[in-house]
Amino acid sequence: MTQTATYNNELTTTENEKNGKFLKGVVIGAVIGGAIAMLDSNTRNKVTSTTKNMKDSTMEMYSQVKNNPTEVKNDLQERLKSASSVLKDAISDAQNLYEKVNENIVGPVTQVKEESGDILSIAKEVTSDIKDIGGKVKEAGEEVINANNGQSNGSYNEDASIPKTNDAATSKIPGELGY
């Protein structure tokens, strides 16, 4: 059991060393990046003005706390209460919005999804039925054509609705009848 504890301690030590090296690398990279950024005069001016503003506001806050600590404490407590109240309202509004979204959007979307699945299955059935009907219509048409071909005994022409005649007068063009 002592070997397991030693092994776990070695792993923890190795992980801590890796984390320490990583943190050192991040800090060194940030320092180098900051130093390179300071080569630009605009960046230096912005950093200088921001630092001065922070210093001034810090000094002002320090003097207020030094002169009237109770007032600053009460003011800070009031701000925290106000922020807490606003945060509670925001959380309540977010919960109400979540409930509305679930009721008015998620529920109907789920219902539409289910109904669309039903509609698709019905459409597939109808498509299959239409194919069956089309096949039967084709088959009936072929039977009609075959029935007409089987009756061609000279009494009907290819149109099958116009009777054939062997009259010589009908074979001439109307202007050639000789009347």
Residue share in β-strands:
under 5%
Task: Tell me how many strands there are.
Answer: 0
* Estimated helix fraction: over 70%
Radius of gyration: 48 Å
Commentary on this structure:
- This protein is an all-alpha fold and 179 residues long.
- 81% of the residues lie in helices and 0% in strands.
- The protein is built from three helices and no strands.
- The protein has helices at 2-37, 41-67, 69-150.
- The longest helix is centred in the middle third of the chain and has 82 residues, at 69-150.
- Mean pLDDT is 79; it is low at 152-163 and 165-179.
Q: What's the short story on this structure?
A:
By secondary structure, this protein is mainly alpha-helical.
List key phrases describing it:
single chain, mainly alpha, elongated, disordered C terminus, 179 residues
Q: How do the helices and strands line up, and which of them pair or pack?
A:
Blueprint: H1 2-37, H2 41-67, H3 69-150
Helix pairs in contact: 2-3
